[in-house]
Amino acid sequence: ITYKDVANYLFKNKVLLTPTQASGLFQQLLPKLVDLQAPSHNLCLRAQLIMALHTFCLEPYAIWEADDGQDECVWYNMMYSAENLGTGGRFCIPGQRAKEFHNHSPSSSAQDKQDVSNLRGVLQARRENSQQQFLEALVPPTSYGFSAKPNKP
């Protein structure tokens, strides 16, 4: 499977993930992942899978797999709508340790964080029409210009 297969599956089946679920899926899928034939990016397989899973993560500020295969640079350079999250407000879930990020619960309250992935819009679209593909409103993260945005059916 490729990172695109993962992103397309989650999109098609309307799945959103908690950080703990993303971490568990990462551990299960990484050994099965293969690179695309002609990559137009410089991200390793670990980073590609992180980007695919994080696109559907309910907590964009959470770091659920500290080893991104790029010395934490994928996390550090992750952006939503051209806005870099940097280290401010980012945190590692229990069991993860990162050099550049908080290794505890989030230090700032949820009220201080911006809705960078447009989760409110996604949930509103879900409430308005459950038959429609409500995940189209989701804003995917990018890192080094790479996005794991799924293909729309």
Explained architecture:
The chain is an alpha+beta fold and 153 residues long. It has five helices and six strands, in the order H-H-H-E-H-E-E-E-H-E-E. The strands form three sheets. A two-stranded parallel ribbon has the order 1-4. A two-stranded antiparallel ribbon has the order 2-3. Strands 5-6 form a two-stranded antiparallel sheet. Helix 1 (3-12) runs parallel beside helix 3 (45-54) and helix 2 runs antiparallel to helix 3. The protein is globular and about 40 Å long. It starts with a helix and ends in a 6-residue tail after the last strand. 30% of the residues are buried. The mean pLDDT is 82.
> What is the general shape?
globular
Low-confidence stretches: none
Helix run count: 5
Strand content: 5-15%
Mean pLDDT: 82
> Helicity, in percent?
25-40%
Sequence of secondary-structure elements: HHHEHEEEHEE
Distance between the first and last residues' Cα = 18 Å
Number of strands: 6
Quick structural summary:
The protein is an alpha+beta fold and 153 residues long. It has helices spanning 3-12, 19-29, 45-54, 73-76, 119-128; strands at residues 62-63, 79-80, 83-84, 91-92, 142-143, 146-147.
Main traits of this protein?
153 residues, two-stranded parallel ribbon, 5 helices, globular
Question: Secondary-structure blueprint of this entry?
Answer:
Elements: H1 3-12, H2 19-29, H3 45-54, E1 62-63, H4 73-76, E2 79-80, E3 83-84, E4 91-92, H5 119-128, E5 142-143, E6 146-147
Parallel strand pairs: 1-4
Antiparallel strand pairs: 2-3, 5-6
Helix pairs in contact: 1-3, 2-3
